[in-house]
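User: Here's a chain of 83 residues. Predict its fold as tokens.
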Amino acid sequence: MTAKVIIGRAAGGVSINGLEYLLGEDGQEMTFDSERAAREYLREHGIPESEIEEMSFIQVERPGETIKDRWRGYIMDRFERQM
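Assistant: Prediction complete.
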């Protein structure tokens, strides 16, 4: 199983706000086969290189897994260790 990549950027341009993610028409994070493919998609859609450099390219381990799923898994793991 190969990892996929999603694209995030600082919400409102402020890193303390956390990340917002590039979504597809279905409302889920768009996934790409590689960071290179993600960057090419952004270029093809007119995003300036200076903005692309400020974005985060995050590997997602399982097909269909969203960043929310990854975060939920992290929280549950931390919670279970405290019990």
